[in-house]
Predict the 3D structure of the following.
Amino acid sequence: MIVVMKPGAAEENIRAVVTYIEQNGLTAHLSKGEEVTIIGMVGDKSRLSTENLAIYKDVDRILPVTESYKLSNKKFHPDSSVVKVGNTVIGPDNLTIMAGPCAVETREQLFAIAHAVKKAGATILRGGAYKPRTSPYSFQGLEEEGLRYMQEAKAETGLSTICEVVSMEAIEAAVKYVDMIQIGARNMQNFILLREAGRSGLPVLLKRGLSATIDEWLNAAEYIMSEGNPNVVLCERGIRTFETATRNTLDLSAVPVLREKTHLPVIVDPSHSTGAYKYVPSMAKAAVASGADGLMIEVHNDPAHALSDGPQSLTFEKFESLTKELAPFCTVVGRTFL
Ligand code: PEP
Ligand code: MN
């Protein structure tokens, strides 16, 4: 962090800033120019309030030198991370497809979908057991029973599994049954949940908040990583904009931006971002072309009767055609798939 003083700042005001910095346990480095004095701060800034410093007399600007996220920052970890999930990996050499129903509805439904997505090339089965729905009157999920079906589907098919968690209790249950936990868009800034996810020991898929900036998202990843869990994967799932033609607006530029800022794997969810099955294939292909490490796609045996997100769910046939169409895109970006 650097404090830039106003041109011709009074000596006593410069001294006041230096004293404030030193009182907070940091070291101040002074650089005096003809007109402008710059004060560099070195040390642990967790106790220092830059907002308070900004109101000191003659302070012009306070500039960060490095980003507030460190563990997820590419500057300190230039090589792309590979995250192990059950018996598969998410990383720069391959394209990982997570697919499955929005919500686990019955054992039969989940098993049928698990077999179909595996046949078409998915390696991770998704399925919501805790559903944070917009309305409290919508289907809320089977909870622990749904997690048990996920474990059984894994034993039956060999697919790795992922499930969203919405509370501490859900994390405790998920640890017993699934290979990866998901923090949903609505909980991206639930910092207590993020810390608990960090302590769970399981890899974490962190979805982007509906209105979160990329920096806020990376700071959320930092909460998980700062608990000693480096296994975080980011998922772009669309953001809120003025556009109403799609459920959200898929911010595909987040993929190359994140590539520059972080070493963490990045996947894209064309289902929740568009909200319509017919747009899923083109956005899935665009995501692979943009350099994503994987996709999360909702698939259902009977979308018209799905208990949640039927309109954006692909049928088995549509999912299988899509995975076939993705193969040449993987070749172009140098990733293996299938
Ligand atoms: C989901 O993946 O089931 C989900 C609810 O997605 P999001 O958190 O992105 O809305
Ligand atoms: Mn859904």
